[in-house]
């Protein structure tokens, strides 16, 4: 494959492997894929062109190029390679890695159904606040007698419960061992490979030669139990149609859609499984990881914790937990959450896109069926804009009087454009309620005095916090 005319600059292309060897060496140097992509952007410019195996890939960095990218319809496709289909029966199914007319039908159905189930409405608020109370009660029980708890994963099941209630109409106990295993499986599935699809997407036959090193076998071993778990749930709902709570969930609504006369051809049992897997994984992974990183970051900054506690005590008092109604009156806490999202960069690259037709980006022409990835890390850590991006400073999100949030154009944790995160509003509510309640209810200390948690995470499709333990002390009366 020759480099197309007016294709963006980048490392030299070689037969078969393209830039693969150069990328491999750079990842070994920088340790993280997003840092490797950032190094290439510093050398070649805001739009970098590569060939990885058989794939053309473009990396877009910097606000100007990212804005232009999100403004063009031709970038709204999703990749159609082996890695992106392996999780959906080797077909283009679900919401995350799908596009076109079928995707549009499934997305409209999902949005309509989730709204009818209360997402973004009063009923959902009550459910979130109840889940928050259950989480705090559970953490109190775990930490009694000065016992240490695993903080990096402490929010996992509570976050997953919010999604699962919408999908399946019920929730799990926070000490459910099976769900703890499911959460670990979700985390591990995001660490197997990077957002480009890795060598598994660039050269699919390699899975037969190196099933483990290519990521194929680990990925299949992680995805199959998740699909089986979801399939068992769907079968259970089918077998118990009269159960009241099962009528108020996305799965039952989808099953009803399958039974109508002449449903849209995109509706199928495989589509339902893929749709649930997308919402199950994407809906929980980034929120859980952000909360895990968040507690770790504030533990490094006692002054931030003190300001959060003071604001919570002034607004909420010591006799109850915060609610979403308190949110407008807690600007410093909100600013802290924004700063956690910015500096932790849980999703340093937005979900991969695909060009659906040739399209111009700046002075370059990107051919059809090119994988395109946006480096959100590049704007969240832009030194010219932020000044000191490596410093954890919530005040950067507040006005001078520190009573209102500032909306920064260089802050896009949920992406932008037509493919913007479907669950953004729900994720923001989750982050606020769980983080606010945790900070209000507890004083958090390292498990071993003076040994603060690591801030460097695990690499993968998303970044996830390393394991760390803490001790909790009660704050509320």
TrEMBL record:
Gene: 6048058
Alphabetized InterPro entries for the sequence: Cyt_P450, Cyt_P450_CS, Cyt_P450_E_grp-I, Cyt_P450_sf, Cytochrome_P450_fam2
PROSITE patterns assigned: CYTOCHROME_P450
UniProt keyword Cell inner membrane present: no
Gene3D superfamilies per UniProt: Cytochrome P450
GO biological process: organic acid metabolic process; xenobiotic metabolic process
Organism for this UniProt entry: Culex quinquefasciatus
Superkingdom classification of source: Eukaryota
SUPFAM superfamilies (alphabetical): Cytochrome P450
Protein name (record): Cytochrome P450
Residues reported in the UniProt entry to bind heme: 421
Pfam families linked to this entry: p450
Keyword Oxidoreductase: yes
Cofactor dependency: heme
């Amino acid at each position: 494959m020759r480099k197309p005319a007016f294709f963006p600059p980048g490392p030299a292309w070689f037969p078969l492997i393209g830039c693969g060897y150069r990328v491999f060496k750079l990842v070994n140097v920088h340790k993280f894929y997003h840092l490797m992509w950032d190094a290439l952007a510093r050398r070649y410019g805001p739009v970098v062109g590569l060939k990885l195996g058989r794939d053309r890939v473009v990396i877009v960095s910097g606000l100007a190029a990212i804005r232009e990218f999100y403004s063009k319809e031709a970038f709204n496709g999703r990749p159609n390679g082996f890695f992106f289909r392996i999780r959906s029966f080797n077909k283009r199914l679900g919401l995350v890695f799908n596009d076109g007319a079928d995707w549009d039908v499934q997305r409209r159905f999902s949005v309509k159904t989730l709204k009818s189930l209360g997402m973004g409405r009063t009923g959902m608020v009550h459910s979130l606040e109840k889940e928050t109370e259950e989480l705090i009660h559970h953490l109190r029980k775990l930490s009694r007698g000065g016992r240490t708890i695993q903080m990096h994963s402490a929010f996992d099941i509570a976050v997953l419960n919010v999604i699962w209630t919408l999908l399946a109409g019920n929730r799990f106990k926070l000490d459910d061992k099976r769900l703890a295993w499911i959460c670990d499986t979700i985390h591990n599935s995001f660490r197997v490979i990077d957002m480009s699809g890795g060598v598994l997407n660039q050269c699919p036959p390699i899975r037969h030669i190196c099933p483990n090193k290519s990521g194929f076998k680990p990925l299949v071993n992680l995805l199959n139990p998740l699909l089986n778990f979801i399939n068992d749930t769907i079968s259970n709902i089918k077998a118990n149609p009269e159960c009241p709570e099962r009528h108020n969930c996305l799965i039952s609504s989808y099953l009803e859609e399958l039974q109508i006369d002449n449903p849209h051809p995109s509706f199928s049992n495989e589509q339902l499984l893929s749709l649930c897997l997308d919402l199950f994984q994407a809906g929980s992974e980034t929120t859980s990881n952000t909360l895990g990183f968040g507690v770790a970051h504030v533990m490094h900054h006692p002054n931030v914790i003190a300001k959060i506690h003071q604001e919570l005590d002034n607004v909420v008092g010591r006799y109850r937990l915060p609610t979403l109604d308190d949110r407008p009156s807690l600007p410093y806490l909100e600013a802290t959450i924004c700063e956690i999202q910015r500096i932790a960069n849980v999703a340093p690259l937005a979900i991969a896109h695909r060009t659906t037709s040739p399209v111009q980006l700046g002075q370059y022409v990107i051919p059809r069926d090119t994988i395109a990835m946006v480096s959100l890390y590049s704007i969240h850590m832009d030194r010219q804009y932020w000044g000191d991006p490596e410093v954890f400073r919530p005040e950067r999100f507040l006005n001078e009087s520190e009573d209102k949030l500032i909306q920064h154009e260089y802050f896009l944790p949920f992406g932008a454009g037509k493919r913007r995160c479907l669950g953004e509003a729900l994720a923001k509510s989750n982050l606020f309620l769980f983080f606010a309640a945790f900070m209000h209810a507890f004083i958090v200390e390292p498990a071993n005095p003076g040994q603060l948690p690591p801030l460097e995470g695990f690499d993968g499709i998303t970044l996830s916090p390393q394991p760390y333990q803490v001790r909790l002390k009660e704050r509320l009366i």
